[in-house]
Each structure stands twice: as C-alpha cells, then as structure tokens.
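Need residues for this backbone.
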C-alpha cells in the first residue's frame, strides 16, 4: 500500500518564537494563510491524482507550529477534513508542531478530530544547542512531549537539525542516540542552511557562525542514519526538499544545501559497506583483479554512485581491473553480495545490520 500526504502549509502562523535559523515563509513555499475553502480545494485537487486502490492518504498540516495557532482556527482546519475522514478518502491527519506546545488536553482534542501523527520540531537534544538556537525549551521538554504523545497512541515523528550554533559531530550523534530512546516511529534529518534575512544569516555575515560543508554534513548524517536504521527507526527525509523557493537566487546565503543530499548520504553508506565486504572477501579468499558484486535492483544506483563514483574509488583503492555488477532479486534490501566473476551466486553477503555492528 502506497502512502500519500496531502500537504497544507501554514507559514509561521501561531508560533510566537523566532528561532535564529527560521524563515518559515520561504521554507513553506507560500505566503498565503489558507482558509477552510482553500483546504477543501487543495484536498479535492490532490485526491483527483491519487489512485484510490491500495493508497493510504494522510492530510498533513506543515510549515508552522499547528498547536500554537489560535484554538478556534485549529478546530476550523480540523473540521474541514472531517467529511473526507468519514468518507474514508483520507485515513488520518498529520501535524507538525513544537515540543513546548504539547500537553494532555491538546492531545485529547487532536485525537477527537482524527489526528494520528504528530511530528515534533525537536532539532537537538543538547540544551546548549537549543539555547543558542533560540528554541526556548530544553531537552526535558522534548522528552516529556514525546512520552505523552506515545502514551496517547499517536505516531511520533522527530525532526532533527545538525550544524546549529554550538553543535558538533559528537553532539549530533549524541542527539541521535538519545532520540532513539524516545521511541519515534520516524525521523527527518536536516543540515542547517543559512536562509537570507534570518538571525543566523546575520551571525554568518558577522563571522559568528560557520555552517557545515556538504561533505561534513554527509559524514554526520551517514552516522546518524545508521543509528536509526539499526534501531529500526525509519528516516523519511534527509535534507530540505529542493523546491523552487530554495533554488531562487538569494534565498540561501550559505550552508550545505544539495538537491540530492539524501541520495549522497545513501551512496556513501553503500561505498563504506562495499569496502568492508571486499576486505572480508579478500581476507577469506584469494585476491582477484575482477570481482562480481550482487545487489538488489532497487539499490543499484546507491551502490554504484553518481557517474559510477563509488566503483571508480574502490577500483583504485583495491587496484582492481573491473567490478562487475549483477542485479539479483534474491539479495535482500540494503545487503550486498560478492563473488568471483565466473560464479553466478555470491560467496559472501553483508547486510546493513552486520555492517553497522562491525563498523
């Protein structure tokens, strides 16, 4: 069953804070605050494009802190979706909000309107980083919010940012490990981008803040992704969505924005995993100038890398004449097999979990 989100963007509506990195109007791709009729029109237009059979559809309120909006307006928005829930055209509602705008009374009300998923803009679980970023809450607030969200039976999403002021590789990894203990159902990982005309932009121009590079961000997110994967927590987004708003000249002042950031992270993991498998293979068997790699077809682009970058790097590293690629449906997702060129089946395999445990 394929999952679809119908996005309703609510730009910075209701949030009383101005976090140093935030220009929500640009990130949300809209300046217009939707009314009830807008919402119904958006829903109808999206439903026309979604195949009814084998589809799981959620209505997602994104872009602002939903539970910080005036309660009457929240209710109006939620009421606008009810007819689609009753007709089972939409299975549930997803919202995003801040950890400090969650309490039991809010959760009871959201539950009554059919909200099933709550994504929290956590950003970090390091108190100094939260303070430096102007978040106005601490890690205890996050933990309390996550706990009661799970207690009330909601699906929990956690949004994390790396490279905020005061953050580091070690602190980001610490945040990932602590986030695992909160038992989220899904995670989004975002490298911090310097958006023009934000406080962070001023800090950058005054040389009080140095953003991460793309390579540094990939290295950190690679380790965080593996932490979540081995704990069976799905990472549903790596990097900001490369919409036209962010591609517009002058919107981004600095930072590790890349339209294919998530794919780069996945390719780097596959390169490291394949390198470990080659080492293991050559230790157990004799070295060969030509090897055959077996991979599930859905993973081949991640394994090979852009313009065969991973293959080129590993051929040079191991002084190989060729690396043959065999697409094999019998190989599990995120598993790589290896063998000699004249063998149709792999002699060894390395799964993602085995790779993480051995790394």
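Answer:
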């Amino acid at each position: 069953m394929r999952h679809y989100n119908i996005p309703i963007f609510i730009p910075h509506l209701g949030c009383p804070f101005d976090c140093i990195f935030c220009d929500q109007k640009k990130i949300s791709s809209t300046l217009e605050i939707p009314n009830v009729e807008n919402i119904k029109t958006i829903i109808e237009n999206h439903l026309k494009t979604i195949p009814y059979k084998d589809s799981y559809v959620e209505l997602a309120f994104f872009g602002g802190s939903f539970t910080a909006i005036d309660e009457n307006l929240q209710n109006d928005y939620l009421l606008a979706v009810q007819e689609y829930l009753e007709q089972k055209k939409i299975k549930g509602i997803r919202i995003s909000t801040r950890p400090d705008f969650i309490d039991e009374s809010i959760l009871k009300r959201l539950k009554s309107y059919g909200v099933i998923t709550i994504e929290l803009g956590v950003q970090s679980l390091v108190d100094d980083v939260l303070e430096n970023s102007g978040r106005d809450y601490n890690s205890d607030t996050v933990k309390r919010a996550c706990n009661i969200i799970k207690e009330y039976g909601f699906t929990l999403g956690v949004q994390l940012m790396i490279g905020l002021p005061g953050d580091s590789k070690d602190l980001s990894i610490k945040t990932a490990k602590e986030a695992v203990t909160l038992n989220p159902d899904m995670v989004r990982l975002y490298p911090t981008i310097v958006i023009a005309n934000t406080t962070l932009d001023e800090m950058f121009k005054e040389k009080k803040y140095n953003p991460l590079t793309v390579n540094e961000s990939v290295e950190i997110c690679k380790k965080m992704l593996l932490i979540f994967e081995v704990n069976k927590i799905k990472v549903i987004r790596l990097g900001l969505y490369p919409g036209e708003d962010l591609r517009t000249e002058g919107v981004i002042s600095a930072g590790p924005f890349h339209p294919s950031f998530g794919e780069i992270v996945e390719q780097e993991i596959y390169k490291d995993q394949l390198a470990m498998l080659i080492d293991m293979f050559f230790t157990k068997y004799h070295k060969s100038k030509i090897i055959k790699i077996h991979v599930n077809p859905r993973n081949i682009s991640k394994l090979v890398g852009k313009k065969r970058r991973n293959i080129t790097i590993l051929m040079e590293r191991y002084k190989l004449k060729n690396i043959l690629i065999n697409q094999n449906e019998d190989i599990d997702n995120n598993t790589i097999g290896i063998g000699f060129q004249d063998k149709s089946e792999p002699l060894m395999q390395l799964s993602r979990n085995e790779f993480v445990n051995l790394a």
